[in-house]
Amino acid sequence: MKILKDKIVFISGASGGIGKACAELFAKSGAKLIISARTVEKVQEVANEIKEKYQTDVLALQLDVQDKKAVNELIDTLPLDWQKIDILVNNAGLARGMDKLHEGEPEDWEAMIDTNVKGLLYLTRKIVPRMLEHNVNGHVINIGSTAGIIAYPGGTVYCATKAAVKFISDGLRMDVVDTPIRVTNIQPGMVETNFSVVRFHGNQQKADNVYEGIEPLVAEDIADIVVYAASAPAHVQICEVTVTPTHQATGGIVHKEKK
Fold it and tell me: TM segments (predicted)?
């Protein structure tokens, strides 16, 4: 897509899943990429794959978005050629546990709040002023969830964090309404990535059970929507997209075929 050619796109949580799929599709569209993740080896592997496949520039960086100091230092020390960020994809996020609130682990709550909410805020706070400084038609794309619209049992804190993403997106859109910056919130339902493996603390069987009997979305489905929103003409702002598998109505209402 010509509109994305040579744009600089920053994607957090890009070592796999939706983040990696977004990186690949942006690269295919001619964009240059800054991709980050907590594990530098994994994100460097993604960068190497993309460079070889699409012959585009990719900068791979280690970053835990929960660490405000690390976020600030990383953005402040970007190489000169990478400072003019056009698009920010706040993708880093996670779910931990399926306990009832009164039985939950505070450590799980903190991981979700620090990543899904505070990490998104830290990156947005550092990058949006640079978009304004460089007078680019900037775009902030947040990966929310249907969990931010309707809660479901066992997901109280996760749902709260994704509701926060929705309202942060809405509020930021108001804050930058007098600028060229656009804000989009993508709210997927069931997407089969390593999401459920993380939620169940590495229990692959429990994770597999989540998607049994239904054809879930895949990471590439969400990447298609992200890149579509980013490639819309500058006067078009896609504010919010909610997407689910055909047999999912909400986080808690799913039809599964019996074996």
Answer: none
Choice among 7, 20, 32, 162 that is catalytic: 162
Rounded to two decimals, the pTM is 0.96
Check 54, 118, 122, 158 and give the catalytic one.
158
What is Dmax (Cα atoms) for the chain? 57
Catalytic-residue membership of 228: no
At 193, list the tokens: 């990535």
Domains of the chain: 71-254 (3.40.50.720)
Give dist(CA 191, CA 132) in Å, integer: 33
For the question of residue 162 being annotated catalytic, the response is yes
Tell me what the mean pLDDT of segment 17-27 comes to.
Answer: 98
Beta-carbon contacts of residue 237 (< 8 Å; ≥ 6 apart): 173, 182, 183, 184
* 146-149: long-range contacts, CB 8 A cutoff, minimum separation 24: 146/187, 146/188, 146/189, 146/242, 146/244, 146/248, 146/250, 146/251, 147/251, 148/187, 149/187, 149/242, 149/250
pLDDT-derived band at 252 (thresholds 50, 70, 90) equals: confident
Instruction: Give the integer Cα–Cα distance in Å for 188 and 241.
Output: 8
- Of 165, 161, 163, 117, the residue nearest 141 (C-alpha): 165
Mean pLDDT, residues 204-215 taken together = 92
